[in-house]
Design a protein that fits this description.
By secondary structure, this protein is α+β, with helices and mostly antiparallel strands. The protein has 19 helices and 42 strands.
């Protein structure tokens, strides 16, 4: 979802987005509406007939788009009343209603919340493409008819740790299973819920559980031993119905019984939760695979993801291998050496290093090595002063003693690294100071900070697997789990198959790509998801008159002139008009002077009245400067930049120069290629009438940043019917807010009254200015939305899209299809025929699955949209994109959407 150099709007936001109108004299298309497919039994959702008459059912590619009759001499939007806005919201809500509307004269009641939304049903199965079969990492689950019971659990005093809660309940079950629990083997979720297969002998009962404090449990001294008492109240809450789940899987009910699925999921997760470290829906342990160092005191553990899901085949257990970063269980002093790459601990830490260590260790649990019994505590901070300078008052509230002296007198320990700061536990009001050398990091603590580039590289290299190896590792995780040998799973009557699901799939034919007619090859049919630029020219070459280059590499400081010469030569050979000589001097600079060097280039170019159209940058040898350079160029100076890593650039590879030329051409407003079907007007539901395609996503700050804003970005196509140029807008919004807030908004201006604005409105106006037409249809692709957020995002964002359209012209309601695309799911598809794979052993590009492992009723599918560049990684096999159609007011069939 990226589009740079889009036509008809340039790079910046439109200046007149609040005033843009759609003129009737130049607007074509947008006409009213295609009726909904009568076989689907849903009412038409198109614009009012008075403003948009229905188009003909078939339109030849060469037939001109019918014009929309002008309903007035001016289409300037008049601010609607509050009742008009409410009417629009009701219209959107009615199309997102929970059940199909019955024939009645009474108006339907709109859903009061996102929970009342039902997504559109699957319109049918696709038929285009070569049929094949693939294996999926879904293991079918059979459930015997059982009398499920859900009990509320209340533990006093309240414990926030799921791990401790599980220990308490495990102790309760061990103590009272035979005497009070009717020999039941309950499943506990670690919080407030307990599930049983059959009723317990009571509806409500309170138990007392005694737990030995882990910090003192290994001591033989009675004074050191400390027992904690917990009151555990268990009360019947509900009886989840397995019959309703079966009815849903048979597609006789619309609403998924999440509570029943949750019961079964908790049962299957109960034993792994007791044995392994739990992170979200994944489990990790050194027992599940190798572990290794990532550097800076961090290591990775192997593990697996597990989730119970309803699919067309019934219930399936989705299992996938995974990896996560954890703190190494080492002395804190060793961690400081690794984290700072600082070997000399006899010298005090600088303020910068101290802050780094503080951020890395805050919240980490350490165990103390100087106590007679095992004891752990959590780091809350690090002292500003070295431990040699710290003092505190003893319990007698009179004697003041230094920390170093205290450890010497109390424990006969001489602090070796007295110049290091102390670890601070306890509270700010009553701190407890501990020497770093006496504290060891407790194993199994997840590292939640963002990994640096070097750590990411090491992790990917260590966890990189070929598809066959990955599939075998998934099988190994299933064997380790041994669900059939789990007493709890057997009591609930759950059976998990040991073999993965075999699924029908299709490989879609690749689209034909059109290049410039002056090239030796005017078009290409990609094979196995790949093609190259040999003997081809860009369909529209961009023009670059003013450019220069800055080289920040010290190792390759002398290659700038030759590198630029070859790059310019390649750009021109591929169809661009690229000036042979730089507009200002090509230069080299030290990597520690990035800000100054970029500022000097900007000042020199603007002073000569030759504003740069392109700045070529050879990055520093050390990684980590890319983000800073892009931020300065793109947001502060307004310069289009092309960054090049020095190592591959120094090889002067033809393929490397071709790839750079393609990137540069798009950035300066050119087009590399276009779909032949677009030129021939053959893309279903895109080529027949003016259509705008949106892409939207929200980027959240990295873990640990509690106040930084999230950034929403929306791009939209700016040309039609080619649909190759895109323009983007961004907007900051509240921290970790997933719903895009600025799709549409109004501001009350004292002079102008109600001013309409927002990202959707701005891009619609830009599309109209670029093409001279208003969109008849909107296809909105939304990334980054989890399944639990589908309803909430759809309800708000669809309403914003509708209001943005209505603000441009009264009654303007183009048809909208809202598609959520997910990359971070855990379904993996493996080939069954080794002869039908790509070069890396993955399933072929274009493989689509819309049966068996998809949702029982909703419109979703899996698409492997392109070939993997390298062999499969732990985080993805090729690129299986899961798409779910949340809302469709177009007659968009299953085959048409995937091919389009």
């Amino acid at each position: 979802m990226s589009g740079r150099g889009g036509g008809g709007g340039g790079r910046g936001r439109g200046r007149d987005s609040g005033r843009g109108q759609l003129s009737p004299s130049s607007t074509r298309g947008g006409g009213g509406g295609r009726g909904r497919d009568s076989r689907r039994g849903r009412g038409s959702s198109g614009p009012p007939p008075s403003s948009h008459p229905p188009p003909p059912s078939q339109v030849a590619p060469t037939q001109p788009t019918p014009s929309v009759p002008a309903t007035s001499t001016a289409l300037a939007y008049q601010p609607s009343s509050s009742s008009g806005a409410e009417s629009l919201s009701r219209e959107v809500s009615q199309k997102l209603t929970l059940e199909p509307q019955a024939s009645t004269t009474a108006p339907p009641i709109p859903p009061s919340s996102s929970k009342a939304i039902r997504f559109p049903p699957r319109p049918g199965l696709g038929t285009v493409g070569r049929k094949c079969r693939v294996r999926a990492n879904h293991f079918l689950v059979n459930v015997a008819d059982n009398d499920l019971h859900h009990y509320d659990v209340s533990i006093t005093p309240e414990i926030t740790s799921k791990r401790v809660n599980r220990i308490i309940m495990e102790q309760l079950i061990t103590s009272y299973k035979e005497s009070h629990l009717g020999h039941r083997c309950p499943a506990y979720d670690g919080r407030k819920s307990l599930y049983t297969a059959g009723a317990l002998p009571f509806d409500s009962k309170e138990f007392v559980v005694q737990l030995i404090d882990e910090d003192r449990g290994h001591s033989s001294s009675s004074s050191a031993r400390k027992e904690r008492k917990f009151k555990v109240a268990i009360k019947l809450a509900s009886k989840p119905d397995l019959h309703y789940l079966q009815e849903f899987l048979r597609r006789r009910h619309y609403e998924c019984p999440q509570e029943t699925i949750q019961v079964l999921d908790v049962v299957l997760r109960a034993k792994p939760s007791e044995n392994y470290t739990v992170v979200g829906r994944s489990f990790f342990s050194p027992q599940l695979g190798r572990k290794g160092e990532l550097g800076n005191g961090i290591e990775y553990w192997m593990g697996y993801y597990q989730s119970l899901r309803p699919i067309q085949m019934g219930l399936s257990l989705n299992i996938d291998v995974s990896a996560r970063s954890f703190y190494e269980p080492i002395l804190v002093t060793d961690f400081v050496v690794k984290h700072l790459r600082h070997a000399n601990l006899s010298k005090p830490l600088s303020d910068q290093d101290r802050i780094k260590v503080k951020k890395a260790l805050k919240g980490v649990k350490v165990e103390l090595s100087h106590m007679e019994y095992a004891k752990t505590c959590k780091i809350v901070s690090i002292s500003r002063e070295p431990i040699s300078q710290l003092t505190f008052t003893l319990d007698d509230k009179r004697t003041n003693v230094s920390v170093v002296q205290y450890f010497r007198d109390k424990y006969n320990i001489v602090v070796k690294y007295a110049s290091l700061p102390a670890l601070q536990c306890g509270s700010e009001a009553k701190p407890v100071y501990l020497p770093m050398e006496l504290c060891r990091i407790v194993g199994g603590q997840r590292y939640t900070k963002k990994l640096n580039e070097q750590q990411v590289r090491v992790l990917l290299k260590a966890t990189c697997q070929r598809p066959h190896d990955r599939e075998e590792n998934i099988h190994r995780m299933v064997r380790i789990n041994n669900f059939q040998g789990d007493e709890r799973v057997n009591e609930f009557g759950i059976q998990v198959q040991n073999e993965p699901a075999l699924v029908d799939a299709r490989v879609l034919p690749p689209p034909k790509l059109k290049y410039h007619d002056s090239g030796r090859e005017r078009s290409v049919n990609p094979g196995l998801g790949a093609w190259n630029m040999i003997n081809k020219k860009m369909v529209n070459g961009g023009k670059v008159d003013f450019w220069t280059c800055v080289n920040f590499s010290l190792q390759y400081a002398n290659m700038s002139e030759d590198f630029c010469k070859e790059l310019v030569k390649m750009c021109n050979s591929k169809g661009m008009v690229f000036c042979q000589t730089a507009s200002i001097r090509i230069r080299s600079s030290r990597p520690d002077r990035i800000d100054q060097a970029l500022s000097d280039v900007y000042k020199e170019s603007t002073g000569l009245k030759r504003p740069l159209q392109l700045l070529i940058i050879i990055l520093p040898d050390q990684i980590g400067s890319y983000g800073k350079i892009k931020r300065i160029c793109e947001t502060e100076l307004g310069i289009v930049s092309q960054c090049c890593r020095p190592e591959p650039a120094a090889k002067f590879s033809i393929q490397y120069f071709e790839n750079l030329a393609l990137k540069i051409n798009v950035k300066v407003g050119g087009r590399n290629t276009v779909l032949d079907d677009a030129i021939q007007r053959r893309i279903p539901l895109v080529s027949d009438y003016p259509t705008i395609i949106f892409g939207a996503d929200v980027t959240h700050p990295q873990p640990g940043e509690d106040s930084t804003s999230s950034i929403a970005a929306v791009v939209a196509s700016m040309d039609w019917p080619e649909v190759t140029k895109y323009r983007g807008v961004v907007s900051a919004q509240p921290h970790r807010e997933e719903i895009i807030q600025d799709l549409y908004k109004t501001v009350q201006d004292p002079q102008k009254g109600v001013v309409h604005s927002g990202m959707i409105r701005e891009l619609l106006v830009a599309f109209f200015k670029s093409t001279g037409q208003k969109p008849y249809r909107i296809i909105f692709y939304r990334d980054g939305v989890s399944e639990g957020q589908f309803s909430q995002v759809l309800l708000y964002e669809m309403d914003a899209i509708r209001k943005a359209c209505a603000s441009l012209q009264e009654g303007y309601m183009p048809r909208v299809t809202f598609v959520v695309v997910q990359k971070r799911h855990h379904t993996r598809l493996f080939p069954t025929d080794r002869s039908q794979t790509d070069r890396s052993g993955n399933i072929q590009a274009g493989t689509v699955v819309d049966t068996s492992i998809c949702h029982p009723t909703e419109f979703d599918f899996y698409l492997n949209s392109h070939a993997g560049i390298q062999v499969c990684k732990v985080y993805s096999v090729g690129f299986h994109s899961a798409s779910c159609i949340l809302c469709s007011f177009s007659s968009l069939s299953s085959t048409r959407l995937r091919r389009g």
